[in-house]
Specification:
Blueprint lengths: L2 H7 L5 H4 L7 H8 L8 H4 L8 H6 L4 H4 L19 E5 L2 E5 L26 H13 L5 E5 L8 H12 L6 E5 L2 H4 L6 H8 L5 E4 L9 H12 L3 E7 L8 H13 L3 E6 L14 H11 L10 E6 L4 E5 L4 E5 L2 E5 L5 E5 L3
Parallel strand pairs: 2-3, 3-4, 4-5, 5-6, 6-7, 7-8
Antiparallel strand pairs: 1-2, 8-9, 10-11, 11-12
Helix pairs in contact: 12-13
Length: 347
């Protein structure tokens, strides 16, 4: 058995085992995991430096998950936009393939909390074929995202099966993989996996780091191997209350990612998902954080701030306000240092 498989197999999934490593309230943990499962592997557990630090809050169940009762199961209406099992088609030109509901660790803020880890499963062969036929029959689809759960909990052969069949569909121009594995189980990124992925270039890989404590020598090695294989890498983080809702922490994260050849791509305002409401950050605070990032680090290190609108409204970018006043062709701007500048536009 490969090293990553051993680590995954020996993950902590119950309060009694977790209590051997962390000082927790087992009764509270049990209340939570009776509804929302627990999985922490030994690697990610080792990143915890103190109680309720940014890593702890991302992976250790909190009683607030079941106490607050706010939010909805599926605020983005993914199920409404799922014409067949395992496929979400919300935008005309792209689809998401939900290939597995398993992850290397169950993040407490997961937007698909209603599905992930509840009954561990992968997409059935008959449903996979239906998905391929659906994509092949709709020539408007040019972009396919392989997601989950985490598709990289599958074996190399299973992952290649998806890539190989999608590459056969001529109108599919872009294939993306969404995986948090480089942050939560970097040992999964092996030379064999990278050799296989390289065959399907160009391949876009969006990973998910939320805090600079997740940037380790192991995660750097994983990202280096992927980048050396010609894979184009981006990062999708979530702005999480009490974890990374601080411009200094985010600056350190985003600048660190660039040194690993991972471009900060999206930073999401948390979705209003039931069981995750305590992680939510206000739009006003998110915009304030962006203002403290823009101009204070390289543009390469600035992700798009995104809110995914409820009821299937889709991803919508947000930016701080820089135009303070306009009169005819004359604009008044406030720059990143909060100084006023005048600008006369062309006729």
């Amino acid at each position: 058995m490969q090293n990553w498989k051993k680590i995954l197999k020996n993950s902590i999934t119950d309060s009694a085992t977790l209590a051997k490593y962390l000082k927790i309230d087992k009764k509270e943990i049990n209340k939570v995991i009776s509804k929302y499962p627990l999985r922490i592997n030994s690697y990610y557990l080792s990143l915890i430096k103190r109680k309720k630090d940014p890593i702890w809050k991302q992976c250790v169940p909190s009683i607030q998950e079941v106490r607050l009762g706010l939010g909805k199961r599926d605020p983005l209406l993914e199920e409404k936009y799922s014409p067949i099992e395992g496929l979400i088609h919300r935008y005309k030109d792209r689809v998401l393939l939900y290939v597995s509901n398993m992850c290397a660790g169950y993040c407490r803020f997961c937007t698909r909390k209603r599905q992930v880890g509840t009954e561990e499963k992968v997409l059935k062969a008959k449903d996979v074929q239906k998905a391929f036929r659906y994509i092949a029959s709709n020539k408007k689809i040019r972009d396919v995202i392989i997601s989950g759960g985490d598709p990289f909990v599958l074996g190399d052969k299973e992952i290649e099966y998806y890539l190989k069949n999608l590459r056969k569909i001529k109108h599919v121009e872009i294939i993306r993989v969404d995986s948090r594995i480089p942050a939560t189980l970097p040992q999964r990124i092996t030379p064999e996996l990278c050799k296989m992925l390289k065959k399907y270039s160009p391949l876009y890989f969006n990973t998910h780091f939320n805090h600079f404590q997740e940037l380790t020598k192991e995660s750097r090695r994983a990202c280096d191997m992927l980048a050396d294989s010609g894979i184009i890498m981006g990062n999708q983080s979530v702005l999480l209350a009490g974890i990374n809702d601080d411009p200094k922490a985010l600056k350190k994260l985003f600048e660190g990612l660039l040194t690993m050849r991972v471009r900060p791509y999206y930073m999401y305002i948390p979705d209003a998902v039931k069981g995750t409401y305590h992680f939510r950050v206000s739009i006003a605070k998110a915009l304030k954080i962006m203002r403290e990032l823009i101009g204070h680090t390289s543009g390469l290190a600035i992700p798009h701030l995104i809110i995914d609108l409820k009821h299937g409204g889709g991803k919508t970018p947000l930016l701080p306000k820089y135009i303070m006043k306009r009169k005819g062709r004359r604009y008044v701007f406030k720059n990143f240092e909060n100084k006023l500048f005048y600008y006369a536009d062309v006729k």
